[in-house]
Each structure stands twice: as structure tokens, then as C-alpha cells.
Amino acid sequence: MTRGEILICFSGNLLLLLPTSPIHNNYIQSPLISAAASAFRRSEEERFRVRTTAVYFGHGSYAAYKAVIRIRLFILDELARACTSRWQAHTAVKRSNDNARLIMTTILGVVFGFFVGVSFTSVSIAKMNLPSRLIKSLDVSFSGRVARSKSLEDVGSQKVPKIYVPTNPRGAEFLPPGIVVSETDLYLRRLWGDPNDDLSMKRKYLVTFTVGFDQKDNINAAVKKFSDDFQILLFHYDGRASEWDEFEWSKSAVHVSAPKQTKWWYAKRFLHPDVVAAYDYIFIWDEDLGLEHFNAVKYMELVKKHGLEISQPGLEPNNGLTWEMTKRRGDREVHKFVEIMAPVFSRDAWGCVWYMIQNDLVHGWGLDFALRRCVEPAHEKIGVVDSQWIIHQVIPSLGNQGKVENGKAPWEGVRERCKSEWAQFQNRLANADRAYLAQFGKA
Fold first, then answer.
1. Which residues have C-beta within 8 Å of that of residue 274, sequence separation ≥ 6?
2. Between 98-119 and 77-90, two packed helices, what is the crossing angle to 10 degrees?
3. Which DSSP symbol is given to 327?
4. How far apart are CA 8 and CA 54, in angstroms?
5. What is the pLDDT of residue 411?
């Protein structure tokens, strides 16, 4: 029998553990224990051995544990007789009856248990490599302390302070303000390393396109007009997001996919002001825009120069169906007004516009006429940048995502809903105005 083993002997309902080597001699000086250990070591009988690599009799340098071994009532009579008979043979005690056997085993168990409980500073049984037959018979429970920084939870729920901060975001009132993170971003992060080293740069602007894969070449050309200061986000209405990986820039873009949805549906659900708070300006653009005459960096310079909170590039007057007020005017840098085809919002303006977008009115028709409510003074803060213009290619790709109903083509059903939503939005806004003014007797 080698150092680092213990002998296990069952007798009745008791489990006797005897060390087979003097691991801590100063703890095992009892003549009774020594005699018992010696007798069992000399025994030629078949024994059950368990490696104590799993049983650690700790030193004072480790945190103290208490291990509780609860022995289930499991009687192995055959093994008990063999163990007890050998004990009696080596101590020259004549076995008279089962009571003598039980008394002797009880004494040994009590004495050994006393020394274990009093003398050993720590016992770890988390790694005990017991045979499966024994594991089924033993219920092992233990508790331990690990050296680490303590949080309030470590000291018990009784000592966790009662916190209520009404100025925290809704739902976070019970948290200390220092742990509350109310805003996020769309920066892509690594799965490894120090989080502080994840980002080599933080992009200033967010550019979103709602796209189908059929327009990949047009979007590829458009993305090249934006520098590294612009984060690209693609909303995929055709479910083909993974196919864009043929473009290198796509690997650092953010992709969101949901079938047959519009840019305003996506914007309402994925561009909450707290999600895009890291970006100075947010572009909400269509996929059918030609950017041959557009420079994103120069565009942003003009937006800031003229203090525009809501803007869009001028539209080429000879291409597509556009509002007269949004057509490019070649004799100036900027003129005032904007529609919803290619709007650009400042962070503050978007914080207002987002709340005005209706969940069920997905096309956003009528929204452009209400944008003036989100900036003050509107005639100074809303404008078209004429010197940076784009071309509306009028590709009804999303319109073709409709459904044939009552003999109407898919695009016809989409156009009817657009017009209906426009009317509904106007009615809702008018009703909201009246309800608000009624509170002050001005309706």
C-alpha cells in the first residue's frame, strides 16, 4: 500500500476511514488509531482503496473549509464481517457476537472522526475520485470560500443596501447609478483580449441602407463614397445577408435581416436613440441612390458649417420623382427643406424623430412634413445640401416585395398602403395636437 492512500471499511451503518501513511504524524498519535492502522495494513484480506489525491488535508495557508460527509444507511454485511474479523485477529480479541463488532467499530469511528474534525484545518473533497458504486452510496456536500474581491452579494443579503434612484432609466431604479449603462453602440468587438483594446478607432457617423442583394453593385459603389469615419449598417429585406461577404467592407459592416420590411420598420426597432448615441449623425438611406457626385466627408463639413440638424443631399432634377423643394439648385451650397428618401439626422434631432415614427406605419409617408417639430428654428436647422447631390434611380425593388391581391400587381398594393399610411399619420398627429391643447383649454 503506497503513500497517499486511505482504507475504507464498512461496518453496519458506519464508514471507517483509516490513513495508510502518516500524512500528518502529529495528528495521528493515538495508540488506538495507530494500532488500527497497523492491523489493517498487515491484513492480507481484500481491501477497498481510494486515492487521496482527491482528499486534501490542508495547511494553514488555505482558507478553512468544513466538509460534511453524510453517510447514507447502506449495509455491506459481507465486507463488514471481513474487515472486523481481521481487526479482531490482529488485536487478539475474540469475536463473541455482532455486538462486540459493532462496539469496536463505533469506538474507532468516533475517535477517528474526533481527530478529523478537530485537527485538520481544511478538507477539500471536490476532487475525490470515488468508485461509482460508492458515489451512489454517499451524499457529499461541501462549502468553500475562494479568495477574490468581495461584492455586496458576498457579505449576505442582509447587508445589501436598499437602493432606489428615481432618476435612473425606467426599470433600473434599484441599481446604483455607477453600474447603469443606459446607452450602447454598434461597434463590433472581439471575443478575446482586453475590452479596452477592442477598438482601434470609434466611427463618428452611422450610415444605414435598406437593401436587397439584387442591388449589391449599386450599394458597393455607394459604400466606397464613405470614409472609415462612417459605420455601415445594412438592413436586409430579402434574407440574403451572408451573400454580401464577397465585399471586403461587408465584413466590418453590421447586418440585420428581416423579410420584406422597410427602412422605417428597421429604424424603429434597431435604431433607438440610446443604441445610436455614439454617433454624431445618422443616415437613413434607400438602396436606389446614385452617389457619383457625392462626397461624404465634404457633405458633413457643409452640414456642420450651416448648422443643419436634419438634412439630405440635393436630388438631380432630371431624374426620378422628387418634391420640387428637394431638387438640387446649382447656384448655392444649401437650401432649406428635406424629404424622407435620403435624410441625415443629428444625434439630438434623431432623439426626437425616432419617437414620432409609428410602429405600424412602416413606409413613413407624411413624416417629412412633421420633421420641423424636432428642431428649432426649423427654417434654419433643416436643409438640402445642393453642392453634394445624388441621383434617385427609381428602382421599385421593395415595391416588388408586395403580394398580388384582387388582380393588382405587387407594387400597386404597396403604393396604396403608402398613401393610406400618409392619411393615417396626418390624422394621428392632428388628434395628438388637439388632445394636448385640450389640457390647457385651447382645443
1. 182, 183, 184
2. 90
3. B
4. 14
5. 82
Output the nine-digit C-alpha cell for 140.
457529499
Residues with Cβ within 8 Å of 140's Cβ and at least 6 positions away in sequence, in order, are: 67, 69, 70, 125, 128
Taking a C-beta distance cutoff of 8 angstroms, is the pair 343, 350 a contact? no
Query: Residue 282 corresponds to which cell in the numbers above?
Result: 445618422
Q: Which residues pair with 48 in a beta bridge?
A: 8
Helix, strand, coil in percent for the chain, rounding step 5? 35, 20, 45
pLDDT, tens digit (0-9, with 9 covering 90-100), for 18-54: 444 444 443 334 444 444 445 445 444 444 343 333 3
Q: What are the residues whose beta carbons fall under 8 Å from the beta carbon of 244, sequence distance 6 or more? A: 213, 216, 234, 250, 253, 255
Cell numbers 481491501 correspond to what residue? 47
* Residue 438, pLDDT score: 93
Considering the chain, what is the average pLDDT of its residues? Answer: 75
What is d(CA 338, CA 315) in angstroms, rounded to the nearest whole number? 10
Q: Contact at 8 Å (CB) between 308 and 294?
A: no
Residue 406 pLDDT grade (very low, low, confident, very high; cuts 50, 70, 90): confident
Q: Supply 276's cell numbers.
A: 445610436
CB-CB contact of 229 with 204 (8 Å) = yes
CA distance 383 to 391: 17
Name which residue leads in pLDDT, 316 or 17: 316
C-alpha cell at 311: 438634412
Would you say 231 and 203 are in contact if contact means Cβ atoms under 8 Å apart?
yes
- DSSP single-letter state for residue 123: E
Q: Which three cell numbers stand for residue 404?
A: 398580388
Instruction: Give the span between the Cα atoms of 49 and 275, in whole angstroms.
Output: 61
Cell numbers 439630405 label which residue?
A: 312
SS3 of residue 282 by DSSP: strand
Grid cell at residue 151: 461584492
Which of 374, 319, 318 is CA-nearest to residue 343? 374
DSSP 275: T
**Cell numbers linked to 5:** 492512500
Would you put residue 267 in left (φ > 0), alpha (ψ -120 to 50) or beta? alpha
The Cα–Cα gap between 336 and 353 comes to 18
User: What is the 8-class DSSP label of residue 399?
Assistant: G
Report d(CA 25, CA 7) in Å as an integer. 17
Alpha-carbon gap, residue 386 to 336, rounded angstroms? 10
Q: What are the two backbone dihedrals, phi and then psi, of residue 217, each rounded to the nearest 5 degrees?
A: -65, -40
Gap between the Cα atoms of 373 and 185, Å rounded: 26
Closest by CA to 31, choosing from 97, 89, 107, 117, is 107
